[in-house]
Design goal:
Rossmann fold; elongated; about 45% helix; alpha/beta; three-stranded antiparallel beta sheet; three-stranded parallel beta sheet; about 160 residues
Length: about 160
């Protein structure tokens, strides 16, 4: 699969190619740079670099054994890096770690509320207990439980 994109927000086509076991040659545009690990799960080149694109395609065609090994590594990486549990946990971590400027902005206020009152179903850290969170309905959750709650809300409708 050759993906010469100059712009690519995520790289779902590269993930689909990896799932199919196809050798990957892609630009490093957008999400492709995260999805395809150059030399490990495929071959990459800078967007718009036609010579590098040609070199990468030639390398795949000249050494199908190495291309097959990279394709196998790409398929194996799917389960570890791109399963929904990992994505949900990563998303939860981003939301759980506000930028320092945001922490300062909310100092002394309840950042979990809004103009309509407290937002239901949002988890906030339990003061003094590392790794523990409390949903605003009072339920305490830890680690994977927090991830599971977020996945349920995002993908199962609550």
């Amino acid at each position: 699969m050759v993906l010469p994109s100059r712009y690519e927000p995520f790289g779902i086509v590269a993930l689909e190619a990896a799932a199919a076991g196809a050798p990957l040659v892609s630009s490093t545009a957008g999400g492709l740079g995260e999805v395809v690990v150059d030399g490990t799960t495929g071959l990459s080149f800078p967007p718009g670099d036609v010579a590098a694109l040609a070199d990468a395609v030639t390398a795949v065609l000249d050494d199908p054994g190495a291309a097959a090994q990279r394709a196998k590594a790409a398929r194996s990486r799917l389960g570890a890096a791109f399963d929904w549990s990992s994505i949900a946990a990563g998303t939860a971590a981003v939301y759980a770690a506000p930028l320092p400027a945001e922490r300062d902005r909310w100092a002394g206020e309840d950042p979990y509320g809004n103009v309509f009152g407290r937002a239901e179903g949002v988890a906030k850290p339990v003061s003094g207990v590392a790794g523990h969170h409390e949903l605003l309905d009072g339920q305490r959750v830890v680690g994977d439980e927090l991830r599971d709650q977020i996945v349920a809300v995002l993908f199962d409708g609550g």
